[in-house]
């Protein structure tokens, strides 16, 4: 199953301050993740400061893929996620450094031998994840949540993975917002990392 292409309409202002359509068409940056065949990132837009500059600037999605949002910024993307396969579940962890390197954040992967899923990862951001089509399972360290179209996950910098156990493609929409861990959470995460290093 393939999903329809995403149409992006970008507005702006003319020299007199009137609202105009700057572009209307396909996305500039669509990339399949080589280490996870069938996983496709559709980069929609990003901002690089807060408050966001409202201008007629160039398309911020042109260039290399980056998983996290820019510092003090946001990132919006659709992701098409194929069903998990037995081979991926058994051997996928070995490819995760390459997968996360392709999306600009090799350090995001947290997978280890006893991880509940090969795609376990963490970013220091608030992420809104919306199931658009298909079904998905949110995997956390000690919990799982089944998601259907219309389900929204507010991901607050936690260790997680997206498992597609449905047997068919799933499309999700993500909006990522740069964040900073609360000092107590940062200390707990640092302590956990030190324990694992022993």
TrEMBL record:
UniProt cross-references to SUPFAM superfamilies, sorted A to Z: RmlC-like cupins
Per the record, a Pfam family?
Answer: Cupin_2
Ranges for domain Cupin type-2:
118-175
Q: Output the InterPro entries linked to this UniProt entry.
A: Cupin_2 (IPR013096), OryJ/VirC-like (IPR047142), RmlC-like_jellyroll (IPR014710), RmlC_Cupin_sf (IPR011051)
Q: Which PANTHER family match?
A: CUPIN TYPE-2 DOMAIN-CONTAINING PROTEIN (PTHR36156:SF2), SLR2101 PROTEIN (PTHR36156)
Q: What is this protein called?
A: Cupin domain-containing protein
- Origin species: Paraburkholderia kururiensis
